[in-house]
Amino acid sequence: MQFSEFSLDKRLLATVEHMGITTPTQIQEQAIPIALAGKDLMASSKTGSGKTLAFLLPAMQRLISTKALSKKDPRALILLPTRELAQQVYSQLRLLVANTQYKAISVLGGENFNDQAKALSREPHFIVATPGRIADHLSQRHLFLNGLELLILDEADRMLDLGFVDQLKQINDAADHKRRQTLMFSATLDHDNINDIAATLLNSPAHVAVGASH
Ligand code: ADP
Ligand code: MG
């Protein structure tokens, strides 16, 4: 299979080609059509299997092909457990948005809070973030998620290990509306609390597990 067989904007396909990527990985092949169909998804596959593009491409496509619910609020929020992981995802996202009119920022723990508040006030479409810092900005009303169309949790198992459950619930409540799509990715689903958080955040999700032993 080729990326061009997915219903993706030609600017996205061109960026993928520039990345030197031709054939989708298994998780991409299975997750992208489900995410493009607007369904909630819980997906797992091992580290290094290409999960980042499995959610960034459908997220970009949704922004391109649908009308924004809100002019001000971010349209997509991607959460990761650590700064380093968030920076890796943000660098791939920047390549994808470079070709479009969309604006992406990162909001990470350990960076200047006021600078972040300023960046949030400039109405980015996309935010890549760590959960604690986003929860802080929500509490300070620097950020509203009423117009959020896509909530993506990457490395969900590690976010739970790092104790981000309360922040995830706060973010979920701030973006609680019918038209939100939620995608959850993890290296493993063997985690005590992952089904609980999935039940809270996801709405009748499809499940994709590549390389699972059962
Ligand atoms: P994961 O999140 O599953 O650990 P990543 O999304 O970080 O994996 O991808 C790992 C590496 O594989 C990255 O360098 C990425 O650019 C590359 N990659 C992603 N998709 C493909 C693909 N379809 N073909 C070849 N390489 C890919
Ligand atoms: Mg990853």
Automatic annotation (TrEMBL):
Motif Q motif, residue range(s) on this chain? 1-29
Q: Which residues form the DEAD-box RNA helicase Q domain?
A: 1-29
The segment(s) forming the Helicase ATP-binding domain are 32-207
Tell me its family: Belongs to the DEAD box helicase family.
This protein's name? DEAD/DEAH box helicase
Q: What is the protein's species of origin? A: Shewanella intestini
What lineage does UniProt assign to this protein's organism?
Bacteria, Pseudomonadati, Pseudomonadota, Gammaproteobacteria, Alteromonadales
